[in-house]
Fold Glutamate--tRNA ligase.
Amino acid sequence: MTPRVRFAPSPTGRLHIGNIRTAALNWLFARKHGGSFLLRLDDTDTVRSTEEFAAAIRDDLTWLGLTWNDFARQQDRTARYDEAAAALKASGALYPCFETEEELDRRRKRQLAMHRPPIYDRAALKLSAEEIAAKIAAGEKPHWRFRLPNTSEGRGLTPQPTLISWNDLIRGDQSVDLGSLSDPVLIRGDGTYLYTFTSVIDDVDFAITHIVRGEDHVTNTGVQMAIFEAAGATPPAFGHHSLLVGADGQALSKRLGALSIQSFRDEGLEPMAVLCHAALVGTSDAIEPLQSRDDLAAKLDFSKISTAPGRFDVAELKVLNSKLLHTLEYAAVAERLRAAGIEGREHFWNAVRGNLETFGDASIWWNVVAGDIEPVIEDSKLTVAAASVLPDAPWSENTWSEWTAAVKAKTGAKGRALFHPLRLALTGREAGPELKTLLPLMGRDRVLARLEGKRA
């Protein structure tokens, strides 16, 4: 079966690393198996959903390279949900309820006091058609519950233990006892639909074959499989990945604002670094920098995803970002270097890439090579002597060793006493790329001026 998967965020906030882990696993699975990827905005929450967040979701996914084959949004499909709801109402699978939240809360408390599970008692199913009509005529607006298939013939309305099972793509054999759950509300009193319902109808209509999402949806899956069957559809395959925790083992939920994809973009991180970390964290594979999404897709194997929480550490992401930059060939960054105002010099990139934490650091080193910096003169006698034996142009990578040998012979300095003052004078920095590679890029005039303590 050619997979057709979906990523269905709600446009009520910015995408964060937890969202992207789900998106990446779906997109890479489709990529690996020649399938398709649907971006669906679950925007039935009209109060919190905004066009700004919807646009940001598309922008973040595009930045990561997680492009979609098809796009849909639930706000455009209300007529379809009305049609599907009418069919379920006609079959008796959806039934009207009139209890207020306060009334339901009192019932739950009574059930708990009697050591009974606090699930809905299906009192609304005892209402006659006349009673229902009278309530509606009196202005009461019903909410609609889905009757879970957890009773057997002759057992009335009392839920019975009813296991609904599936072989999870990640977690193996799973089951949910529908007898321990309340009939879920699928339509609110104001007529708006809940995710549990609209998601199923969309998955049917868009022919979704595989649903990969967080383990916090396992119970939802049991309920939704029952809704699929009530709608006359075969449920897709399901996979539930573990959730992420921080480096300290605590839940990320309160820190997700700081872990938004926009925050990573603002920090100058590479999209492939973010994607590699999102896809490989919590798996038996090493988290390593890969340069293409196809390479990452080839590594995807649901059997390698641990059921234990994935441990996300932004510091590790930044180290991964550095490693990725260190492996990038000049051809992969030539256009970006030119866009940053850096002359397209392969020698420069090869000289500095091993010292970059973010791509933006290349501009810092370009300024060291070709800009105007304040030299730091630590040992003026040494720098004066070094200027006096500075070789004539043209220079090559051998120039550094030839020059420092001449400075050593003239001054007797060696080791740190020789190299540290020269680095400070030429770069203004304590450490950095090898000077044998930077020196030819700086040029003789700039080097001489800096040895004399002049800005250059």
